[in-house]
Amino acid sequence: MANAIPEKIRMNTTLLENLAEVAKDAALLKGVLMRIQETPNSSELVTYAPFTLFPTPVPEAAFSQALAVQTHFNTLVDKISQDAEFLQDALASTIEVDDFTARLFKIHQQIVKEGTSQSVVCGLNRSDYMLDQAEDGSSSLKQIEINTIAASFGGLSSHTPDVHRHILQLAGQLEQSERILDNNPAAGLARAVAKAWELYGSEKAVVMFLVEEGQRNIFDHRYVEKELWNRNIATMRRRFDDVSKTGSMDRDKRLFVDGQEVAVVYFRNGYMPQNYNSEKQDWDARLMMERSLAVKCPDISTHLVGTKKVQQVLATPGVLEKFFPHQPQVVDQIRATFAGLYTLDMGPEGDQTVAMALAAPDRFVLKPQREGGGNNFYGSEMCEVLQEVKDGTERTAYILMDKIHPAPVQNVLLRRDAPLQISTCLSELGVFGTYVRKGEDMVLNECVGHLLRTKSSEHSDGGVASGVAVLDNPLLF
Ligand code: ADP
Ligand code: MG
Questions:
Q1: pLDDT at 164
Q2: What are the sequence ranges of the domains in the chain?
Q3: Active site members
Q4: For residue range 198-229, what is the model confidence (pLDDT) as tens digits?
Q5: How far apart are CA 268 and CA 207, in angstroms?
Q6: Is 212 labeled as ligand-binding?
Q7: Is 239 annotated as a binding residue?
Q8: Does the domain formed by 343-403 have CATH 3.40.50.880?
Q9: Which residues are recorded as binding substrate (predicted)?
Q10: 65: how many CB neighbours lie within 10 A of its CB?
């Protein structure tokens, strides 16, 4: 098995312990921070965001492939978001049974009917991948999902490279230390938001971060906020509740919250059912923001493009060609990253998907239309769920996906209060992409950095926020 831990250190527990202590200080020193679980509303007590002691080896070819395809994914997301008919068809079966997606879709439909008041659109995406390992040892880049709303860790991952550089220096791995890539998604995300702000065209209007109540990951946002303040763009943080209580639209549909005109709403919340607390107010607040003149990152249709159902429909033959009719190379480049994705719609094709999954449960993952980690079903649990829903339309709330098998790597996961131990780990590579469109013109379309997250192979699911994965850096080979 591959090992991220330098050979001479593996057997030396004392050295590992010393390195881990310095590593935690380095993370604190570099601002790789999180609020603690006990007091998520306060920065009086903070800890380091969990991270790996060593960077994880990642093949250079796969890494470059992921970066190279990102601007095409941006274009794809943006094109789909403008195709109301496609979204309607793709999500038709899902919204019959999935209440959350249906509520989002209803807002989308209202906006389509009214016509959007803002021609500027800002997308901040993160496309996530795992490297599927074949039996001959070769690996191929496979997309897990694309996040079109509230994609996180662009801030903290801008500061982890220095931590790993320092650890490798201490471990006597100078050559490797110098190979750790620079990374600055925070600056890239802010560049897109700043462009959207500029196109909105009012010096005194602010960028509003729409956030949740207890936000352990606040420092991740703060880095983007700081980048905006560096450009003299004012930011403020508000919750749905604040928007609902103090928000309004004037006759020109300009959005005001707490008396401030909002140029851009950057959603760092609103992607899970439980983000909408009160039955009605929070949904009304979302609707008001969507109807307003403020630029949304993302707007409601772009949010919907990130659903698992759209991902599955994109993998059906001929669909990518529809969005890139004259660019077969782009189609190939995108499709090369797709794993097998299967419909559970009612009918013979969906029936076949059910039979296939039940016959070989370890080959697949069952996914509902949820975000935030910990929602998917694997193995025997997947079979139980499928048995329960397979004969009715409830099954259309899910999609089925090939399970990706990345090569395991030995590493040490550092998290508060966890004992120091060597774990068998799996990694997931995220690539950040941003774009700003004004009417027909793509004003900006960039790949702005990466995120490597690593988790113990014992867990089949879950991200950093859900306490399973930790921050990492790729060491290209
Ligand atoms: P979420 O929107 O909740 O983040 P994901 O599709 O990213 O949903 O799945 C959550 C986690 O489950 C991923 O981070 C990954 O660890 C695991 N996972 C998801 N899809 C697959 C897959 N096809 N093969 C293997 N693991 C997967
Ligand atoms: Mg995910």
A1: 98
A2: 2-339+404-476, 343-403
A3: 126, 145, 147, 152, 308, 367, 371-372, 453
A4: 999 999 999 999 999 989 999 999 999 999 99
A5: 12
A6: no
A7: no
A8: no
A9: 126, 149-152, 215-217, 268-271, 453, 464-465
A10: 17
d(CA 83, CA 131) in angstroms, rounded, equals 31
pLDDT score of 137: 86
Cβ–ligand 1 distance for 224 under 6 Å, the answer no
Cβ atoms within 10 Å, residue 1: 8
Q: How confident is the model at residue 465 (pLDDT cuts 50, 70, 90)?
A: confident
Candidate of 425, 427, 461 to mutate for ligand 1, largest count of ligand atoms within 8 Å of Cβ:
461
Is 151 within any annotated ligand binding site? yes
Taking Cα atoms as reference points, which of 238, 232, 230 lies closest to residue 208? 238
pLDDT grade for 462, boundaries at 50, 70 and 90: confident
Q: Is 372 in the pocket of ligand 1 (CB under 6 A)?
A: yes
pLDDT computed for residue 118 by the predictor: 97
Which two tokens mark 67?
A: 């970066």
Q: How confident is the model at residue 51 (pLDDT cuts 50, 70, 90)?
A: very high
Contact 463 CB / ligand 1 (< 6 Å): yes
Euclidean distance between CA atoms 351 and 180, whole angstroms: 47
Give the ligand at the shortest distance from the Cα of 372: 1
Of all atoms in ligand 1, which is nearest to the CA of residue 128? 7
Determine if residue 179 is labeled as part of a ligand binding site: no
Question: Residue 467: what pLDDT?
Answer: 80
Which residues lie closer than 8 Å to 191 by C-beta, 6 or more apart?
A: 227, 434, 444, 446, 448
CA 15 to centroid of ligand 1, rounded, Å:
34
